[in-house]
Amino acid sequence: MSKELEEKFIKAEHVFDGQLLKVRKDTVLLPNGKEATREWIEHPGAVAVVPILNDGRIAMVKQYRYPMGKVTLEVPAGKLDQGEAPDKCVMRELKEETGYTANKIRKIATIGTTMAFSNEVIHIYVAEDLVEGEACPDEDEFINVEKYTKEELHTMIKDGTIDDAKSLVAILMANL
Amino acid sequence: MSKELEEKFIKAEHVFDGQLLKVRKDTVLLPNGKEATREWIEHPGAVAVVPILNDGRIAMVKQYRYPMGKVTLEVPAGKLDQGEAPDKCVMRELKEETGYTANKIRKIATIGTTMAFSNEVIHIYVAEDLVEGEACPDEDEFINVEKYTKEELHTMIKDGTIDDAKSLVAILMANL
């Protein structure tokens, strides 16, 4: 017994248009014929990458996440520039955040992070055959690169040290 | 060589206070002494649950996710009510969305979904020893319950049918 689930767009309101966040409040028609409002964040999409070094270790990034109020350990990641293809973006973000250039990348998943209130999707890649170089983060971006074995990563997943959703999916789906 | 990473709060601005979304724009002091703004979503936190039925199948929910513009297959989940403990919330959401009551729950992870722009954390549980009952979704919530074997879930993870971040983490960390 499958109920009708789809909600139909009636009208849009742009309630906040910030530097980072675009907030919309749409009016929709529910499956039961009633109207409801849906508040959500328009997001350009992003990439994340599991960079596997030639010695088998994985390059991770440590950074301060202001909304969480703490320093986190994550896989390198970043937002798509306007019109940018995900596989170009992953090469750019990997270089910017870690300094590495990859000779081989493959996409392993595309995920939605917060489907209840955002259209953000993250394209997840594995990068291999890496060549070291200079990192070049954005001016307002403060990042430390750290390298871990797959055993260390799995320990930090189990004990909660790694608790970022995209990083968990990336590491668990990369079949390290 | 570990750089200083922390950003310090200077002042807050509440730029949108909706029914669902609370949007903040804070001014912060960066590690390099400069100021920057941080736009982010205040979120009450949520729970998600992998309900393992007595026959070994897992109860999943199908619903329309307006920001994504599509019907998704996810583990049951929902936001914390004000002051609600996660283990109470998980029992409530499981009952509301699927009708099941669990005699046994255990927490397997707490994750951040979008650390760059939200403080949302999701407490992930496994629920077992389930007793069937009537679902009682919110008035504006349209949900179909479907049951899958662990093999079917892993196939749907590999082929991208399941692409919701919290559901992927929940299924992959539940050791089904």
Structure description:
- With 176 residues, chain A is α+β, with helices and mostly antiparallel strands.
- The first copy, chain A, has 2 domains: 8-42; 46-173, Nucleoside Triphosphate Pyrophosphohydrolase.
- In chain A, 18% of the residues lie in helices and 44% in strands.
- Chain A has helices spanning 86-98, 150-158, 165-173; strands at 8-17, 22-29, 35-42, 46-51, 58-65, 70-74, 77-79, 101-112, 121-131, 143-148.
- In chain A, the strands form 3 sheets. Chain A has a 4-stranded mixed beta sheet, with helices on both faces. In chain A, strands 1-2-3 form a 3-stranded antiparallel beta sheet, with no helix packed on it.
- In chain A, strand 8 and strand 9 (121-131) form a beta hairpin.
- The radius of gyration of chain A is 19 Å and the shape is elongated.
- The model of chain A has no long low-confidence stretch (mean pLDDT 95).
- At the A-B interface, strand 2, strand 3, strand 5, strand 6 and strand 8 of A face strand 3, strand 4, strand 6, strand 7 and strand 9 of B.
Write the layout of secondary structure elements.
Two copies of one chain form a homodimer.
Chain A: E1 8-17, E2 22-29, E3 35-42, E4 46-51, E5 58-65, E6 70-74, E7 77-79, H1 86-98, E8 101-112, E9 121-131, E10 143-148, H2 150-158, H3 165-173
Radius of gyration of chain A: 19 Å
| Distance between the first and last residues' Cα of chain A | 40 Å
CATH topology of the largest domain in chain A: Nucleoside Triphosphate Pyrophosphohydrolase
Shape annotation of chain A? elongated
What strand line-up does the widest sheet of chain A have? 7-4-9-8
Oligomer: homodimer
Structural class of chain A: alpha+beta
Largest sheet of chain A: 4 strands, mixed
pLDDT averaged residue by residue of chain A: 95
User: How many H/I helical runs of chain A?
Assistant: 3
CATH class membership of the largest domain in chain A: Alpha Beta
User: Unreliable stretches of chain A, pLDDT < 50, 5 or more residues?
Assistant: none
CATH homology-level superfamily of the largest domain in chain A: Nucleoside Triphosphate Pyrophosphohydrolase
